[in-house]
Write a structure and sequence with these properties.
By secondary structure, the chain is an alpha+beta fold. Helix content is 31%, strand content 16%. Strands 1-7-6-5-2-3-4-8 form an 8-stranded mixed β-sheet, with helices on both faces.
Length: 182
């Protein structure tokens, strides 16, 4: 008997991180990757990661070029799919399916995942990841472009991505409730 199927929320990341520490190649399709993705999602050479690293996602600071570069340098095969919103992972023995992006936003939000050792589900997750189209290989050239986009952009909320976006108070030291214009 394996572990069966378990549900984890509202803070699933410790469970996900533990569940994917397995032998063999891991396959992940995770919508958005924050700066701290490498701690949450420890991938290594031989693994595959599909992520939304579109210009929009990078400019909105939803996907971090630093995290992308970290994985590429580790020997992970990283692909970008601009339509990806799923958050799924398959190892040889487990599948993780849920709402959790690999980001600090996710660790602050109420996310939930199901972790299962059901072989049919594991196979279906693999098939889903293999069938993603419009994918671009994330290489040095891609990373250079991504870094430029990141610098142009700023942290803004994206549809479907919750975030406690820090509001920059540019010149006013305190919030102004009333303003008089003469």
């Amino acid at each position: 008997a394996g572990m069966g199927t378990t549900f984890h929320g509202p803070s699933p990341w410790p469970h996900i991180t533990r569940a994917i520490r397995t032998r063999g190649a891991r396959y992940a399709a995770i919508g958005y990757l924050g700066q701290d993705a490498p701690e949450l999602l420890p991938l290594r050479a031989g693994d595959l990661l599909v992520v939304n690293a579109s210009k929009a996602a990078i400019r909105a600071h939803a996907t971090s070029p630093a995290a992308l570069a970290y994985y590429v340098n580790k020997g992970v095969r990283v692909l970008s799919s601009p339509t990806l919103h799923a958050k799924v992972i398959a190892t040889n023995t487990r599948a993780v399916i849920g709402s959790a992006d690999a980001s600090e936003n996710s660790t602050l939000a109420d996310d939930a995942v199901v972790i299962t050792d059901d072989p049919d589900i594991i196979a279906s997750v693999r098939k889903f990841i293999d069938s993603l189209d419009e994918i671009t290989e994330v290489d040095e050239v891609f990373l250079d472009d991504a870094l430029r986009e990141w610098e142009i952009g700023r942290a803004v909320p994206l549809p479907g991505v919750t975030g406690r976006v820090r509001t920059e108070t540019d010149f006013l030291p305190a919030p102004v409730t009333r303003m008089f214009v003469k």
